[in-house]
Amino acid sequence: MSFAESITVEALEADPYPIYAELRRSAPVAFVPAVNLWFVTRWKDVELVAKSPDIFSAIVRVGVSPVERSFGKPTILTSDGEVHKDLRQGVDPKHRPRTVASYAGDLVRSIAEPYLDEIAKRGSAELMADYFEPVSTLSLARSLGLADIDMPTLRRWFYGLAQGAINFEKDPQRQGIADAIGAEVSDAVMPTLQKLARERDGSALSHMLHDGMPEGKTRSIDFLMPTIKVILLGGMQEPGHGAGSILVGLLTNPRQLRQVLDDPETFVPKAVDEGLRWVAPIGTQTRETTRAVEIGGATIPVGAPVAALVSSASRDESRFTDPDRFDINRDQGNHAAFGFGHHFCSGRFFAREQMCLAVRLLLERFPDLQLVPGKEPVFRGWEFRAPATLHVAFGATDK
């Protein structure tokens, strides 16, 4: 049995990084039966897969993609060509750098500060549930235009949708959870979409309906709904989970934390970028081969599902020195967490701004934050990875 054949889903969920390191050394492109995917692990090969849609297509056969199986099709992740271009025309306008700069600060601050006030009253917190995930879910929902959906519902949505998106092994229990949540999302979002189709505003959902369309026309709600579910999952999950990983990196490296506290303007963005490299919140870009192709010393057959592992690329030893180490002073180029090519994450500027603000506001309020002994964070996941919990305590609570 080869190393790739011995890989289990449980081992990937527990910690994929040693597995990826071994694959980069011995089999940089390999078929992993446990998840029915060809893993591509080295930076140059991951980038090639993501930037070669003629060979590695985002459009996959019916029933192959767990995203399409769970959310419907087409989605912004599983389309190419004119369909993908049309979806990006609606998604991109709310997430351009200048647009994000005009609204993200006030939005995120208004959501974060009440949660920080509650944490201050208690003297301790489990930051994933008490802060990072609420800020992430509510920021995304409010920017979309979903003003009336509460945080527990949103948080339940993204955990439920995730069960489908990572269900490469076609587990019926996971699929049942995702299907039920997907139906709930459709029912809950539909009235807002119907209203915005009649009366446009500045929300992201309004842009998706109207931007790039002829006067008096909108994109159909059925066409947009699968992509809305993708955005709800990735957009709610990535910033909160990324911020949690970033904070773990800082709290376990006191000298780097001190740099951030002393000069947040300079070092919070560096910490965010390093945290995204160190632990990518979303681990793969998934494709299907349009023909047999030789890459990384292996031949992938036509019609094969391929995982371009951006999480592994960001720890490639050929690009990053001592890649398993969290180091905000690293200066070795960009990480791969937002992907490559024309599927490069459309919400990257909004997500990054959220993470910068959430981490900075937290540390400004609680500069003596520390992990609770005996409750050290444990990371889980390979497609979606973050600390399962993040227990912290602090002393001074003055603003």
UniProtKB/TrEMBL annotation:
**Signal peptide positions (record):** none
InterPro entries noted in UniProt? Cyt_P450, Cyt_P450_B, Cyt_P450_sf
Tell me the Gene3D superfamilies matching this sequence.
Answer: Cytochrome P450 (1.10.630.10)
Q: Which cofactor does it need?
A: heme
Give the similarity note. Belongs to the cytochrome P450 family.
- Protein name, UniProt field: Cytochrome P450
Name its species: Mesorhizobium montanum
